[in-house]
Recover the amino acids of this structure.
């Protein structure tokens, strides 16, 4: 209860699902040691944290930002550029963190002060514009970012796959630098999610919800809404940047497509809405379902598409093509906004006592 | 004399708030009915409910032989209701003329009627082609009323026309309302100013806490100081 | 008419706010010494105006819809892309006419393509409004999310129908090339784009200021409830404006694709960001502001691209920040929302 900040999942099915997910993620290196499974698991961890940080904004304050990938990208690029420029040392990792995180926070502060005083719709448009400009910058300033190709880099010795920490003979499976990296990702993501859970259940989190429900009333009660929203925006940006660092750490690469592109922003939106806005737990569920679907549903769709093609049905092969999976998720997204605005978690969760 | 408008047990919710708790009253045809009551009693909400802007959650509203509870606002308006909201709601970006063009639903203006209106609202003629936003408060009120009467309507809903206006203008406005009344119009008038109510009201309904607490002839209320004190004490003090 | 009965006297009008109108002119003149060459300046200015007009065509519907109904359609970009793709349905099969050396044959191919594109995007607007937006009136958060979802689905639908590859869309033969005046060359297509954009602007302004429909739209921007209380079905009015705005986005999409001589679903996203910036700069709901904003954005992009290519990457954002510092609600603040 302490760990969950007095805000447990509530609901047997939901608790069971979350336990299964967390256990599966914790044991992935032993249960599914393949490279693909590890990649999927790491991505779930990273996105769960990223989506949770977005939920702090969307679900708890009701503000739509399209700049979340920008902060994610800043984290990724900070680590990548530092390790690329300074070589695979721990001090480079530290430099990446010390530079990247404050940059993200300052930028969030700037955007917040500039545009949060006006209404939500304005903020959404401005963040969209700023994020797209940032994406263009990142892909054009090749001397710094490597342009469209991005930056590949080498990790410090300890975290490389070749570093065997415990050989297969001792426990029956090998623990190497890659395994260690995975656990860093897992632990850091977990810590961020728990920290966010703490934040939304703190008095600050309650003020945010009061602002979401009725900004005028909150203002009348003496809460400075701009200050609170900007503060939430900064926290959210910081966590997103941390998730970005983990992303780069896992991929050993940072580029526009993996950390900045607009399609990642759309993925985040889909995950948070399908999982459940304003719950934090929704982020874990949303990220898990979405990324599993992304990696395994597509194969299924490919098979269905081929089958439809062989029977000679019109249009269906195109609609079921594996690349069109976003079409179906988009429809699911619209349906969830209408019919389950609180997402899967909202459905499974018992009301608070 | 038949009743133009009848409300029976009307309840209205706005968001989570229950504003009207069973409102019952009638507006007889050809008369001016005053809707009085303290601030927050639900008078404006009653007018908005009749107009369909805050639809009723229960109860019946009969207007000119039709049950209009739950109708869309434009349909209610087309049935013959003219509405002068508390905020006047003149279209400030449009000229005086354009405001009235929009209000004249059935086509070009009737020149005699327009002259009749200009007769008691001369500034509208004077500033015919000026932006409504540049008019003074009293002139905006005139425009708002003119919009409601530019064509004959079965019923006029007028919400606190004298609010915030200088006493001289209030007196002129009473004259105009009396003139409109003489033309045979049926009016439901919300008013805080008791003297205005006395001057033009035929019947009266008094509201408190979202329900009608008194109905009767205006003259009877006018002559009964104790009743006034009991029903309207606070609002009277505020205005005298 | 009753005009004759009215006295001639009028209240002083509020001073006309012309500073924003002068901005593009000042900017263009200020660039002459910086650019140096007259012919380059003319080329850049014409390019700016042409690009600005195309963006204006796409943005005008969005800003009106917002002003009238407080709905910001994040799916607006989908209409731009759909318009472009639909036009290929006619332009590609009729490639022989498009490439024919006769203006009339060119027009006989382009005109139906444009009309079909506008009809389809207008109809799509109807579906969008009915299915997606109507249930979430007044709820900004859901509006943003739902229209975003609409954008995703529409974009994926385009990929499913046409495939992900870029479709080349050559300009009609008669619109290629330039008019030459001395050492100044003005591309024919840019001239046409300017002409179409100006026409859209003038017609929009005429409709808004001279017709009953326009009066209703302006009145509706100011006070929706009162328009309804006068007996007008504002929902129907709104639907009409929404469809017209969608059709204009489709027109803009066709024009832009011909300008770039290629069609791809990503232009929806790409242009939507420009369109948003223009709408913010102009002041949400203002058609005039939108017009000036579009020209300004295009000028900054073209002049900036020539003078400081690196800076041009974020020039729109810098312009937006500068304008919002000066006027936090955009050039012309129309609504109080």
């Amino acid at each position: 209860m302490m760990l969950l900040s007095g805000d447990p999942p509530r609901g047997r099915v939901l608790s069971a699902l979350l336990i299964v997910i967390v256990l599966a993620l914790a044991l992935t290196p032993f249960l599914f040691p393949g490279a693909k499974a590890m990649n999927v698991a790491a991505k779930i961890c990273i996105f769960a944290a990223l989506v949770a940080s977005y939920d702090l904004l969307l679900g708890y304050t009701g503000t739509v930002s399209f700049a979340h990938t920008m902060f994610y990208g800043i984290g990724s690029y900070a680590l990548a550029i530092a390790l690329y420029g300074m070589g695979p040392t721990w001090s480079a990792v530290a430099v990446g963190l010390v530079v990247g995180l404050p940059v993200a926070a300052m930028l969030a502060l700037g955007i917040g002060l500039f545009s949060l005083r006006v209404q939500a719709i304005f903020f959404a448009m401005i963040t969209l514009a700023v994020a797209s400009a940032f994406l263009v910058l990142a892909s054009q300033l090749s001397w710094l970012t490597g342009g469209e190709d991005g930056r590949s880099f080498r990790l410090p010795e300890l975290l490389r796959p070749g570093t065997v920490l415990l050989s297969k003979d001792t426990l029956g499976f090998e623990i190497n630098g890659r395994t260690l990296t995975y656990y860093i990702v897992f632990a850091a993501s977990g810590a961020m999610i728990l920290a966010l859970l703490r934040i939304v259940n703190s008095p600050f989190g309650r003020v945010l919800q009061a602002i979401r429900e009725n900004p005028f009333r909150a203002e009348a009660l003496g809460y400075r809404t701009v200050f609170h929203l900007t503060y939430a925006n900064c926290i959210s940006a910081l966590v997103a940047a941390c998730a970005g660092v983990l992303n780069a750490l896992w991929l050993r690469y940072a580029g526009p497509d993996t950390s900045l592109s607009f399609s990642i922003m759309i993925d985040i939106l889909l995950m948070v809405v399908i999982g459940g806005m304003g719950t934090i737990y929704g982020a874990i569920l949303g990220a898990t379902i979405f990324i599993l679907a992304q990696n395994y549903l597509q194969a299924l769709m490919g098979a269905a598409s081929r089958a439809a093609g062989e029977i000679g049905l019109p249009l269906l092969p195109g609609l079921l093509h594996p690349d069109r999976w976003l079409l179906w998720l988009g429809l699911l997204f619209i349906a969830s906004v209408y019919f389950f605005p609180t997402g899967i978690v909202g459905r499974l969760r018992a009301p608070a006592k | 004399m038949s009743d133009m408008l009848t409300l029976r047990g009307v309840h209205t919710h706005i968001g989570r708030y229950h504003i009207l708790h069973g409102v019952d009253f009638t507006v007889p045809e050809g008369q001016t009915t005053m809707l009085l009551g303290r601030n927050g009693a639900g008078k404006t909400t009653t007018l908005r409910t009749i107009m369909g802007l805050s639809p009723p959650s229960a109860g019946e509203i009969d207007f000119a032989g039709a049950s209009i509870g739950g109708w869309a606002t434009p349909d209610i308006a087309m049935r013959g209701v003219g509405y002068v909201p508390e905020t006047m709601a003149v279209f400030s970006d449009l000229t005086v003329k354009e405001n009235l063009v929009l209000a004249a639903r059935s086509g070009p203006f009737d020149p005699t009627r327009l002259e009749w209106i200009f007769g008691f609202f001369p500034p509208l003629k004077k500033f015919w082609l000026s932006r409504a936003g540049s008019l003074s408060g009293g002139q905006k009120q005139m425009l708002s009323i003119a919009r409601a009467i530019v064509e004959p309507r079965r019923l006029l809903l007028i919400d606190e026309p004298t609010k915030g206006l200088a006493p001289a203008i209030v007196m002129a406005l009473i004259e105009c309302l009396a003139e409109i009344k003489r033309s045979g119009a049926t009016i439901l008038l919300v008013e805080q100013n008791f003297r205005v109510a006395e001057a033009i009201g035929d019947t009266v309904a008094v509201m408190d806490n979202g329900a009608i607490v008194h109905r009767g002839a205006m003259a009877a209320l006018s002559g009964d100081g104790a009743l006034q004190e009991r029903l309207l004490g606070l609002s009277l003090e505020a205005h005298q | 008419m009753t005009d004759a009965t009215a006295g001639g006297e009028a209240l002083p009008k509020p001073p006309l706010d012309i500073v924003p109108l002068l901005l593009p002119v000042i900017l263009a003149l200020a660039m002459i010494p910086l650019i140096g060459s007259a012919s380059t300046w003319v080329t850049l200015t014409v390019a700016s105006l042409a690009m600005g007009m195309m963006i204006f065509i796409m943005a005008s519907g969005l800003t009106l819809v917002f002003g009238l109904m407080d709905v910001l359609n994040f799916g607006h970009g989908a209409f731009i892309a759909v318009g472009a793709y639909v036009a290929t349905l006619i332009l590609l099969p009729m490639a022989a006419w498009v490439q024919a050396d006769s203006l009339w044959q060119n027009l006989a191919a382009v005109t139906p393509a444009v009309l079909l594109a506008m009809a389809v995007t207008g109809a799509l607007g109807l579906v969008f409004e009915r299915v997606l937006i109507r249930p979430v009136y007044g709820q900004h958060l859901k509006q943003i999310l739902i229209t975003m979802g609409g954008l995703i689905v529409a974009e994926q639908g385009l990929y499913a129908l046409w495939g992900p590859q870029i479709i080349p869309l050559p300009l009609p033969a008669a619109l290629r090339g330039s008019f030459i005046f001395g050492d100044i060359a003005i591309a024919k297509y840019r001239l046409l784009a300017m002409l179409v954009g100006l026409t859209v602007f003038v017609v929009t302004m005429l409709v808004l200021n001279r017709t009953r429909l326009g009066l209703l739209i302006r009145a509706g921007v100011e006070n929706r409830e009162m328009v309804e209380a006068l007996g007008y079905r504002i929902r129907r009015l709104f639907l009409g404006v929404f469809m017209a705005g969608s059709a204009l986005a489709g027109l803009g999409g066709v024009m832009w694709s011909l300008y770039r001589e290629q069609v791809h679903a990503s232009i929806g996203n790409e242009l939507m960001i420009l369109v948003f910036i223009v709408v913010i700069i102009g002041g949400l709901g203002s058609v005039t502001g939108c017009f000036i904003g579009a020209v300004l954005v295009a000028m900054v992009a073209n002049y900036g691209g020539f003078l400081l290519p690196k800076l041009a990457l974020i020039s729109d954002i810098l312009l937006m920040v500068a304008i919002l510092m000066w006027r936090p609600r955009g050039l012309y603040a129309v609504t109080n929302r």
